[in-house]
Design a protein that fits this description.
4-stranded antiparallel beta sheet, 4-stranded mixed beta sheet, 17 helices
């Protein structure tokens, strides 16, 4: 999953050796805080309606994390997968699984959560006619190809690999062995859905109904969402506050200003312009911790100019032209670390992180950068344009810095320019419709703490977030082999072999690893971020 959030201070000026950050934009929310017991938090408009299988970006994911509980949930501190709605997930061969649900779970409209709730949701997600972004997450299940053919209408409405045995039990047959499959089930795409989702879909989209600790009180796109504590929530992680008001900001500096003025309780992405002030402003109410997040620059390999043979040298050269150390130090200070691979240090070495996979290709060397770009035939048309949304994450500042670094390395004038897009939703729409013709930002926030999640969804042929349309048969083969491996150490080693292909092909440039950051008001306590950098909203206390 990907994206970040927002904020802004009245005064904005950060001078960097490579670029100057631009000020701009304002909030389109009011300046009042929420009531007693309610947490007010900055937010960005989700790209899509809040269907679990159609949401694969951070802003929508935050809401789903409050509205739903799946079979598995990841421990906020360790990231370890723990059963939530599932009583047990059993297998004898890592290919056929029997899932038994706990008693007592229900949706906030009173419907019970049953095995059918999961099977119906997963079949809906996989059905090609429903155009769900996360459909590929179900491609391992037997019968997926019948409901999601590569072309034409589906031959079936359901996957044959899903069978309901009784209200509390269903079985899942996978196409091949996938030893860590149960650990992926904490991803929100695997959430259950109530019957109301299917019987009155439009009404459900206006006010989603889930089985998590909150319910939706109101939602106005472009303005915000009000969530309220569900008093009858049956799970163990009951909300410690009365609700959360998510407020849309188009500039995260504005959110930060509102926090300091007492008009907002929580900002979960402290803007780069405020990093030099944040410790003085907030003291121990500032959180900065490692997270399962990497920022990359992805190439549109669907464009023949970028995808033709030999362009891998150009892509590697661009990577070597980027002075990551200076950019992260001067723009992001202690909240970003130069990337050395395509995963995250938060995985740890045992989890698959490697500081050597990218090797020289991620090291700044202007002379070598220029040589590689020239050997590869040069930039397409002699220039390139970097695209990102600029409403969150201080993206304009680093885009300018990256282009300045490339331009300085090549010494051919302003051949690298930027294409700032005003909102995250607009950027995602252009990205997901393959309209971009130059490198574009691809922030990735892990869906679950496995190396597989940093590789397969982004670089496997036809994967759900493979927006550059990279395709390599050997990469795909190694990923398949790793998924089937029952020995965890061997699986990770095989995934790393696949990752080495990314270093030679460079479908995306690893830029930096991103910490999770947040600042909060004095009236809050118990504020923490999980490993995905998302606030654990249900554990925040007010007053």
């Amino acid at each position: 999953m990907r994206g970040a959030i927002h904020a802004r201070r009245a005064a904005c000026a950060v001078a960097v050796a490579l670029a100057a950050a631009a000020c701009g934009g304002g909030s389109d929310t009011g300046g009042t805080g929420s009531g007693a017991g309610i947490v007010s938090s900055s937010w960005g408009d989700p790209q899509n309606p809040l269907e679990p299988a159609n949401t694969n970006e951070v802003q929508g994911g935050k809401v789903l994390d409050m509205l739903f509980r799946g079979l598995v949930r990841y421990d906020a501190g360790t990231g370890e997968a723990e059963n939530m709605v599932a009583e047990k997930i059993e297998t004898t061969d890592s290919q056929n699984f029997t899932i038994t649900l706990k008693d007592g779970w229900k949706f906030s409209n009173g419907e019970p959560v049953t095995a059918q709730s999961f099977v119906d949701a997963w079949n809906y997600a996989a059905d090609v006619r429903n155009k769900q972004n996360n459909a590929p997450f179900f491609s391992d299940i037997v019968g997926y190809d019948q409901v999601h053919p590569s072309s034409g209408d589906p031959k079936s409405k359901t996957m044959s690999g899903l069978v309901v045995k009784d209200p509390k039990t269903f079985t899942v047959a996978l196409k091949s062995k996938f030893s860590t499959w149960p650990e992926t089930l904490g991803y929100q795409a695997f959430s259950p859905l109530p019957k109301a989702f299917f019987t009155d879909h439009a009404a459900w989209l206006d006010r989603p109904v889930g089985n998590g600790p909150y319910t939706v009180a109101s939602y106005t796109k472009g303005t915000g969402m009000q969530l309220r504590k569900w008093a009858e929530y049956p799970g163990p992680d009951k909300a410690q506050n009365d609700g959360v008001d998510l407020k849309v900001y188009t500039d995260n500096n504005t959110a930060y200003t509102d926090l300091l003025a007492g008009n907002l309780d929580l900002v979960d992405d402290v803007p780069a312009q405020q990093l030099k002030n944040v410790k003085d402003d907030l003291g121990d109410r500032y959180i900065n911790q490692p997270a399962l997040i990497i920022q990359t620059l992805t190439f549109p390999l669907y464009d023949p100019q970028w995808g033709k043979p030999g362009m891998e040298k150009v892509r590697q050269g661009i990577s070597r032209a980027i002075d990551r150390d200076t950019i992260t130090r001067q723009i992001f200070q202690e909240t970003r670390t130069p990337a050395k691979d395509w995963t995250s240090p938060a995985l740890g070495e045992k989890g698959g992180f490697s500081s050597t996979v990218c090797g020289d290709a991620c090291e700044y060397d202007p002379a070598e950068a220029k040589r590689l770009i020239q050997e590869g035939g040069g930039l397409p048309g002699g220039k390139m344009t970097i695209t990102s949304n600029v409403d969150t994450g201080s993206h304009r500042a680093w885009m300018d810095a990256v282009c300045n670094s490339v331009n300085n390395a090549l010494g051919e004038g302003p051949v690298c320019t930027v294409n700032p897009i005003g909102t995250f939703a607009d950027f995602r729409n252009q990205q997901s419709s393959y309209k971009l013709t130059g490198p574009f930002r691809s922030g990735w926030q892990g869906d679950y703490p496995l190396i597989q999640n940093f590789l397969e969804p982004l670089y496997y042929t036809g994967a759900s977030s493979n927006y550059g349309k990279f395709s390599d048969p050997e990469f795909d083969r190694l990923v398949d082999q790793a998924n089937e491996e029952s020995d965890a150490a061997k699986a990770i080693s095989t995934f790393q072999d696949a990752e080495k292909i990314l270093a030679t092909q460079m479908p995306s440039i690893p830029l930096w690893y991103q910490n999770g950051s947040a600042g909060y008001a004095e009236r809050l306590s118990g504020v923490t971020l999980n490993q995905f950098s998302v606030p654990v909203y249900d554990q925040i206390k007010v007053g």
